[in-house]
Amino acid sequence: MRALIVAYYFPPKGGAGTQRFAKFAKFLPAHGVEPVVLTVDEGLRSEHAPIDDQSLLEQTRCEVLRVPPPPRATSMQRLRRRLRLHVDEDEWAAAAAERALAAARERKFDVCVTTLSPYANYTIGARLQQELGVPWVVDLRDPWALDAWRVYPTPLHARRDLARLARVLRQADFVIANVPEARRAFLDLGADPARTVVIPNGYDDEDFADVAAQGADPARPFTLVHMGTFHPADLPPGLTRNRWRRVRHRQIEPLGRTGYYLLHAVAAWLGANPAARARLAVRLFGRADASHERLIDALGIGDVVRTEGYLPHRESIAALAAADAVFVPLHGLPAGERALVVPGKLYEALASERPVLAALPEGDGADLVRRLDAGLVAGATDVAAIAAALGTLVTAWQRGAAHRGCARDRLVGFSRRRLTGLLAQVLTAAAGGRRTVEVVDPWRALG
What we know:
Oligomer: single chain
Low-confidence stretches: none
Strand content: 15-25%
Order of helices and strands: EHEHEHHEHEHEHEEEEHEHEHEHEHEHHH
Mean pLDDT: 90
Structural class: alpha/beta
């Protein structure tokens, strides 16, 4: 079976959005699927994936069709962008759709998968389905119009995007949600339960094959690591439906996706435990802009907290295993609401077998940490709770009774190899013209 995979973020681009289908492409051949990837030109830069990662490229062995952005937008595309009627990356998606159609006419694709974002990628799968009858699977890494991080200039724009998402959920042959909570939200929008499945992100066993977690050593500081992107930490605090007068579908506290609450928690804990300064080291790996450096200086914690910049994926795994605990945050939500996303970094943090300090709202991610007894969960925006959890981890470590984290063999349902088997089930069903598939997501498999 030959599958066309439309993945805007693909090696050598680095970052979390790249890893999902880089790993699927790695393991699909073992399930009888030949992946052909349609992606952007190597030289095209994106704010969401500004750095290349050769360690990811080295793991990927499949045919890759690269489409450069068009030299200029059409007049209609420019007008749609001016009126904010576009989705995102519309111009690239239009060019990529022509390339996909040409490739599909030259040779048979049994199925097409479009992974979103960018959300304009859906148009490529829709055109292959409508014009050539190629079965189409849409993979939603984030819940698109329901993603509380996505903002709109007016309520009209928000409703229009929500209607577009609802059409895609009904039109695609199969829909893949990233977490169970997102699947429930898609069903509320009209998605067919028989054709909507959950396949989350995960971890690759092979990445951890030569990495061993180190034991506690009282002679060195307790090291807390964050791995991944921190958004700017100078956003206005508080739950808000508007961000710079733009509209959201859900209220969130966007500062939860920054280092703001962690840094304030570190400062608060050190203020209450001044003798502990020499026993704590916080390392922020990945993208953290100058607002974090300013906040670190303002809080007077520069001797404890350090920003380290982006690490290639292979090195990031080693840094996780060398830590004493891993910090995983997400945006805050109003009481009673559950998150529709789980940070992709959580799965590798769990696989590192290090205890996780999870600053998460209620949702599938917080549920997973608790069910696995893999660390401590604090409210995403609760400085006191984050500080208390940090103190608990440091104190236990000093006493030689450090939290052991989660044994990796309890996570097998979230291994990339196992998850690729679930994807292969969906692709096989779509290619065979079936209208239903039974996929047991890893949360259900945990019992």
